[in-house]
Write a structure and sequence with these properties.
Low-confidence stretches: 1-23
CATH class of the largest domain: Mainly Beta
Distance between the termini: 52 Å
CATH superfamily of the largest domain: TolB, C-terminal domain
CATH topology of the largest domain: Neuraminidase
Strand content: 15-25%
Number of strands: 39
Largest sheet: 6 strands, antiparallel
Length: about 900
């Protein structure tokens, strides 16, 4: 019965969503129980069988109760509301629930207060994760149009997604998102105002991961420093008027949750680890070991659910059957609103859905370090508990109304299929309580307090002028401050710079000054004088932020702040001194290691000792790694290219590859930056032709002061080295450029006269064809892809990859049929250490019968590519094994290029 319900429900939802003006209130007293098989409620219940090969005396199974047991029955939202155990004065109220939404995993609000809901509608729809990567995920958008606190009006903003990873509102009617097993973040826009995205643009690349859906990128979060952070990625990205740039960072170790506090410190939420991560220092400075940062007892949850239904098994079970060690944390928020008691402001909260709790974290700061504890550890309880086994808090967010919203996935299974396989402890417990049937639900709750009514102030930032947005920078609710700062930067309206500067210097609110200061930085209008004044301010918070923001100016070439950073290392406040050390490290100031060693010798504060000693260790390790990171040939190209860049290119393109500021107010760039540039990291032909022949005029509509003159008088090795360097520094990751390739392009364009214009150059460059649903991909042999997956050669175009079922044979093929003919010119793919063909050919066709060989190559581990001169448009391409190896044939990240 439940399967029929799930098929029928989306149809009802689509009808309701299309009728956006027709208000239909969510019904919170309707129980999902009515959709379950009635027999599951009736005794006698089925006997639970012990899986084959299970040793009942082992740690995971010892003491397990397999008595036939009544199934867990889902409750209505109003019934579930009664199961919460809250601290005095608090209450939880549903504001949105099934059937309007299903499997909600995260929420975000746009500038008009509309709530976007990430719905993972394929997550664990049965115990084997069947169909988990089917394109049935969605992002819906909801409004409370009558101000009663219930979100009753919704649209499906974006549909047919493959397990989407996040939703990021990005200006009026626009969001950012990406799908599982993909490397690209896209910008989706509703251009005609009907509430549905109809325009898709590439926003950034290089943020993807493959594998288990719980182990991929999530929560791309814009923070106070104007950068965006996500889980798993050791890099951060930033939107600028010239494009999206990237920088390397430490490993965030997060799994599901990225948030920030009132002072811009980013917190990452570990999943299986069950604890917050990287909350001591900004992740851009790398990872640091902080002994004791989790105080004694932090890992112990206090749960009211006693089913022992968690993956670690009986070894992590209290005698009463509840969880004894946090194991499945998800979702986080530093509460920054103004409609809950003040003691909650700037406190960190996260969900532990395996324990069915929401935890409040207390932060204790000493000697420049932060140590955390469960705020209710002494009372042996949690901020929020529930007796309902289906309460699954997976996200939370400070809302525009000043309260805290909690996303409850409300389901039976909360672990992915890799942990529920046949014979597993967890599968046995799930089936014992028949929890695998409870799917397709989801609730969003508002946490409020009896002494603090929610705000009814309605955000209307998209309709407000730039000057009107300024007033929100001093709003008592941090959500308003964040959103106003983001929109001011996206608008790039520099007419408000004088007022921002006045606010940053003189506003009575410390937080308003911080947001004004960073808004200036985001507009490219921050001056060294103001930075220096903040670095010398009597308030240590401003000294810290002066140093952090000053790094931007230093990276763009203003070295006048170096003395200020070095002076800051002796600051009497240990947190300020720690920041000075971190800045000196990231900026690689002259004599930085001597500065670190001197700090170790003279300042006993724990924060100083931790940072200085570990930076010294890291730098020594980096010197060792640098010797083996690249092959001998690559290393020589990289080193020579760095020398050339520092001597010639940095003058216009910036010492850190960000571009050199120019103009009366420093708001323009002499030349475009290289960091994160899709042009620089894209097909190498673009950069080679630019250096050989020069480039003039606007680039993607943006004019620059400088002109890229032709560098063709330099050798092929000179050009190859500098391009290899800029494609692999400044946060970039791309293939190296060989002198032989430069020679080929030089010969092919030898009769060209004059510089390229951008449009003319782009017209010549091979463009990557991104996979579409109407591509037909097939292969002569394909292996099974794992639990819940089907045989699908199209996985070759993503991180998941494709491989043959059997060892290579001559004539084995991989084939692609395009919907329209293209002038194909190049194919690239990644191969494993052993699973590459001995030799292979590329053939093209227009009818699938008559094939023409256009290229032949020898396979190798790592990156493979073949180029050929296109002669005619074709719609079919295949790769054939010519000389097989005694291995299966495997490919991933296949890229196809056409002119």
């Amino acid at each position: 019965m439940i399967r029929t319900y799930l098929v029928y429900l989306p149809l009802l939802f689509l009808v309701a969503a299309c009728q956006q003006q027709q208000v239909q209130k969510p019904v919170f007293d309707r129980s999902p129980e009515e959709h379950l098989d009635p027999q599951r409620k009736e005794a006698p219940y089925p006997q639970i069988e012990i899986p084959d090969g299970v040793d009942m005396e082992s740690a995971r199974w010892k003491g397990i109760d397999l008595t036939p047991t009544a199934p867990v029955i889902p409750l209505s939202a109003l019934e579930e509301q009664k199961t919460f155990r809250l601290q005095p004065g608090y209450r939880m109220d549903p504001i949105l629930a099934e059937p309007h939404i299903q499997e909600p995993a995260a929420i975000q609000f746009d500038g008009n207060g509309r709530m976007y809901v990430l719905e993972l509608r394929t997550y664990m729809q049965d115990i084997d994760a069947t169909g988990e990567l089917m394109p049935e995920g969605r992002i819906s958008r909801w409004e409370d149009t009558d101000d009663d606190g219930i979100y009753e009006t919704g649209v499906v903003f974006l549909d047919s997604l493959v397990f989407p990873r996040f939703v990021v509102p990005f200006g009026p009617n626009t969001i950012l998102s990406m799908e599982s097993n993909e490397d690209h973040v896209y910008k989706f826009t509703d251009t005609n105002g009907d509430g549905k995205a109809d325009k898709k643009e590439l926003f950034a690349t290089g943020l993807g991961r493959s594998g288990n859906v719980e182990h991929q990128t999530s929560f791309l979060t814009w923070t106070m420093d104007n950068w965006m952070y996500s889980t798993y990625n050791s890099r951060r990205i930033r939107w600028t008027p010239e494009g999206v740039i990237q920088e390397p960072t430490g490993n965030p170790y997060g799994q599901w949750g990225v948030t920030q506090d009132n002072y811009g410190q980013v917190w990452f939420q570990d999943g299986a680890g069950g604890v917050p991560q990287n909350f001591n220092f900004p992740i851009v400075y790398g990872n640091f070991r902080i002994p004791g940062q989790f105080q004694d007892g932090f890992r112990e949850p206090f749960s009211l659910v006693k089913l022992a239904d968690f993956e670690p098994g009986m070894r992590e079970t209290k005698p009463d059957g509840s969880l004894n060690n946090v194991t499945g944390a998800a979702g986080n928020d530093v509460f920054r609103g103004d409609r809950l008691p003040k003691e909650l402001v700037n406190q960190y909260f996260y969900g532990e859905p395996v324990g069915r709790i929401v935890r409040q974290v207390r932060s204790d700061k000493t000697e420049g370090l932060t140590y955390i504890q469960n705020a209710y550890r002494d009372q042996e309880t949690e901020f929020i508990q529930s007796t309902d086994p289906l309460f699954r808090p997976v996200d939370m967010a400070t809302a525009p109304d000043g309260t805290l919203y909690i996303v409850d996935m409300y389901r039976g299974i909360i672990q992915e299929g890799n942990w529920t396989q046949k014979g597993s402890y967890l599968r046995t417990k799930i089936q014992q309580y028949q929890m695998d049937d409870v799917v397709g639900n989801g609730r969003i709750w508002r946490l409020s307090h009896e002494e603090h009514p929610r705000s009814t102030e309605k955000p209307r930032m998209f309709e407000e002028s730039t000057e009107e947005l300024l007033q929100h920078l001093s709003h008592p609710n941090g959500w308003w401050r964040d959103k106003a700062q983001q929109l001011l930067i996206l608008r790039q309206d520099r007419s408000v710079v004088p007022k921002l500067a006045e606010m940053a210097q003189n506003h009575e609110s410390e937080l308003a000054r911080l947001h004004a200061f960073w808004t200036l930085e985001g507009l490219g209008a921050l001056k060294a004088g103001l930075v220096r004044a903040w670095m010398a301010d009597s308030n240590p918070t401003f000294r810290i932020h002066g140093m952090r923001a000053g790094e931007t100016l230093y990276k763009y070439g203003d070295k006048s702040l170096e003395a200020d950073y070095k002076k800051g290392i002796s600051d009497p406040d240990p947190q300020v001194a720690v920041q000075a050390l971190l800045s000196a490290h990231i900026l690689d100031l002259e004599g930085v290691e001597e500065l670190m060693q001197n700090a170790v010798n003279t300042n006993p504060a724990k924060g100083i000792q931790t940072v200085a000693q570990q930076v010294l260790e890291r730098r020594a390790e980096e010197r060792e790694r640098a010797a083996t990171k690249y092959t001998v040939v690559e290393g020589a190209l990289f080193d020579q290219g760095k020398s050339i860049f520092d001597s010639y290119c940095a003058t216009c393109h910036g010492v850190k590859g960000l571009g050199t500021p120019t103009g009366a107010d420093g708001g323009e760039l002499i030349a475009p930056g290289f960091s994160g540039s899709p042009r620089v990291q894209g097909h190498p032909e673009y950069a080679v032709k630019t250096l050989l022949h020069g480039l003039t005029g606007a680039i993607e509509g943006k004019e620059y002061e400088g002109v890229m003159i032709a560098m063709g008088e330099n050798t092929d090795e000179w050009i190859a080295s500098v391009l290899s360097y800029i494609r692999n520094d400044f946060g970039n990751q791309a293939s190296f450029v060989s002198p032989e390739y430069v020679a080929q392009i030089r010969a092919a364009t030898g009769d060209r006269e004059g510089n390229y214009s951008y449009d003319a150059l782009v017209a010549e460059i091979p463009k990557q064809l991104f996979p579409k649903d109407n591509w037909e991909v097939s292969a002569s042999s394909t292996a099974l892809q794992g639990v819940g997956s089907t045989r699908d050669p199209s996985y070759a175009f993503g991180f998941k990859g494709w491989k043959t079922e059997e060892e290579q044979k001559e004539g084995m093929w991989f084939q692609l049929v395009l919907p329209q003919p293209q002038k194909l010119t190049e194919i690239q793919f990644d191969a494993g250490k052993e699973q590459y063909p001995g030799s292979y050919s590329v053939e093209v066709s227009t009818n699938g019968t008559d094939w023409t060989e256009v290229a032949r190559g020898t396979g190798e581990a790592g990156s493979n590519s073949l180029r050929w001169e296109e002669s005619r448009p074709v719609n079919q391409l295949r790769l054939l094994v010519k000389e097989p190896r005694n291995q299966v044939w495997a490919m991933k990240n296949v890229k196809l290029y056409a002119r």
